[in-house]
Amino acid sequence: MDKFIIEGKTPLQGTIPISGSKNAALPLMAAALLSENAVTLSNIPRLKDIFTFNNVLRVTGARVDFHENTNTLTIDPTNVHFLEAPYDLVRKMRASFYMLGALLGKYGEAKVSLPGGCAWGPRPVDLHIEGLKALGAKIRIENGYVYANTPNGRLIGGNITLNPSSVGATVNILLGAVLAKGTSVIKNAAMEPDVVSLCNFLIEMGAEIKGVGTSELTINGVKELRGSTFRNSPDRIETGTWMIAANMHPESKIKLTNCNTKELGMFYKIFSSVTGEMEITDDTISIQAPESIPAYSITTEIYPGFPTDLQAQWATMMTQADGKSTVTDTIYNDRFSYIPELTRLGANIEFKQNRAIIRGATPLTGASVMSTDLRASVSLVMAAMAAEGQSEVLRIYHLDRGYEQMEQKLNAVGARITRALSEENY
């Protein structure tokens, strides 16, 4: 198992290209099963989760060709015949659960393992299941699997109100509804760019969806979808991560390219309050870090609010800010596993319920730390780059799930990160 050895302190200077979004790509891949012929997706990142989901699709009989040199993925569902997503693959990533809506929507039945993924907090699939039941699905759970079918081989239209709003449930219900017989309405639907991208892709294939980008989606079911070519969105979480990472070093000056700055939501406005000079276009962001970082408290909210996927990174930056700040997560209460590890590096953080109380600025010094999930992992890398001396970040397989060529990108702008084999025993 690999680890990172990181030498600090290292300001970041240069250009970082932003990769395609993993969170946006996975729903597109599931949606490809709904087509009558092949689809081509571009700007797909080379990540473990993408490779895993490729294999989930292949199990069904779909042909999947990933051209890694061009980040292009072709999926041909013509020969899909095995309507199952098995545990040994689904346990590795929650997004495999999108197979439930896709298989039900196209073929009228599915057997899908309950999901795995990051090791933090309960994230139940009740909303997914209740939403598909509202479209006429018959569902039971046995031995860790969800068994689903439709009485007449096809889902029907229905009305669903999501409480709370959920990206995953919105995606699964959309996948089921676009080929259903009749009209479906999803109220309190997620408005995240990942959902907007999926809607636009489905429309390109022939789906009829109204209200894209709003909290109420109306889907008129169609008989079939056709193949299409579609470009995946840039990764807004990677964009925000490198913005924060650069801001932690007074000498940092970076330019991020291949962005979609319109998808940053409130994060851009909030970040503007703590950075130095910043220039922005539709697809680039240039940042000159400030001499000192002001303390700034944030609370995560559904899009366009501050994203939960950036709260660990923000808390890490606040350890170097002047004064006291708080990070409150209203989406997931348990997403603070990074706090004990940041404390090992010298951070002064107190944790109460769903809130981190951070007192800065505290000098960070190198230590061995261990990550437990994707965003916790990257926050530890950021802290190590700001710390004096050498640090080890263990269990970086989480990072390989969500950040394409991380060490290559960061080393190209001044970081000193080495990948090495870990001595851990499991």
Give an overview of the whole structure:
The structure is a single chain. This protein has 426 residues and is an alpha/beta fold. It has 2 domains: 2-19 and 234-421, UDP-n-acetylglucosamine1-carboxyvinyl-transferase, Chain, CATH 3.65.10.10; 22-231, Enolpyruvate transferase domain (UDP-n-acetylglucosamine1-carboxyvinyl-transferase, Chain), CATH 3.65.10.10. It has 14 helices and 25 strands. The strands form 6 sheets. Strands 18, 19, 20, 21 and 22 form a 5-stranded mixed β-sheet that branches. A 4-stranded mixed β-sheet has the order 23-24-1-25. The protein has a 4-stranded mixed β-sheet with strand order 2-15-17-16, covered by helices on one side. The N and C termini lie close together (10 Å). The model is unreliable at 117-123 (pLDDT under 50).
